[in-house]
C-alpha cells in the first residue's frame, strides 16, 4: 500500500487582519487634504504670469469699522474782507500809496487821468447849459404867448360889448322905422359876428396856453435828462480818484506809477488782515460733495485749527473750485496773508463698513479692481468702491474682512492676472 503525504503536511495559521483605528483614518484624510491644498497652491503658483518680491509692494488687510469720508487739499490764508479797485476808464495812473501801507476808508490811493472822459463831461456840461437857456427862453416865450392870447380874447370881449351896446341903441330906431330893414339886419349880424369872434378868441387862448405848456414841459424833461447825463459823467470823473473802500492795508499794486491802464484793469487791492480765512482749491470731482457748514481741519504747520465751510465759488477755474473756510472761535496767532496751509474737509461718517487703507492702487486701477493675495499669489479681484477719505476707502463689493490686498506697488505686475509673491 502506498503511503499518502499527510505526514508531510504543515498546518498554516491564517494571518490576523490589522484594522486601522479611527484616529489613523482621520490622520490619513488630513494628510490627503494638506497634499491637495499644496497641489492646488502649486497649481495656482504655476498659473502665475509674473513673480514679484514682497518688499516691492505694500499690503493691507480689509477691516470692518468706521470710515470718515474727507478730502485733503492745499490752500492759503486770505483776508476775509478784500477789495480790489479797478480802472473806471482808460488813462494814466498816478499812485499815491505803496504795498503794505495802512489806509483808512476814503484815503486817496491813486488818480487816473482820462482826457476822453473829461472832454465828454465838458461837452455834456455845455449841452446842459444850452438846454437850461432854451428852457428859460421857453418860459419867457410861453408867458408872451399867453399874454398875446389873453389880449386877443380881451379885445374880442370888448368888441362884443360894443356890438351889444350898438344893437341896444339901434333897436328903438328899428322899431319906429327910423332905420331901414337892411341896416337893422346888419347891426344884428355885427352882434352875432362879435359873439363868434369872442368865443373863438377864448378857445384860441386856451389852446395856445396848452401848446405853450406842452413845449415847456418837453424842454424841461430834456433838461432833466441832460442833468442826469452830466451827473453820471461827474461821478465817473470823480471815480478817477481811487479811494480806500475799507480800513486795512494795501495788499498789492498791479501797476507801476505813470503807466497806462486799460478800462476795468485791476489796480490796487486793499485787505483787512484783522479777519483771515482759508481758501482751499478743491478738485472739481468733489465739488458736489461739499456743502456750506461742513467741518474742516486746517494744518498750519506747527499747529492745527478747526473751521467750517462758509462759501463755495460758483465757477470752476483750472479744474478746481475755491472753497472758503472760516476759523471756529478765535483766530490763530501768527497768520500771514497768502501763507500756505493744508486743509481737510470732513464730508461724512459711516459706521460698520468694510474699509481698506488708501494707496496708489485707487488711482492706478480707477477703483475697479485690486490684487488680492492668497497662498502667495496675487490675483486680480473686481471691487466696487463707496466713500473715500484721506487714509481709507469704503469697499462695498468684492472683498471680505481679512483679505490681504496690494495697495502699493501693483504697477510692477504689469496688468497680469496672477502674480507670484516671493517672501
Automatic annotation (TrEMBL):
Top-level taxonomic group: Bacteria
Pfam families in the record: YknX_C (PF25989)
Domain YknX-like C-terminal permuted SH3-like: 363-419
Chain ranges passing through the membrane: 25-48
Subcellular location field: Cell envelope
Chief location category: other
UniProt keyword terms in alphabetical order: Coiled coil, Membrane, Transmembrane, Transmembrane helix
An example Gene Ontology CC term for this record: cell envelope
Signal peptide: none
InterPro entries referenced in this protein's UniProt entry, alphabetically: UPF0194_transport, YknX-like_C
PANTHER family recorded: EFFLUX SYSTEM COMPONENT YKNX-RELATED
Name under which the protein is recorded: Efflux transporter periplasmic adaptor subunit
Natural source organism: Ahniella affigens
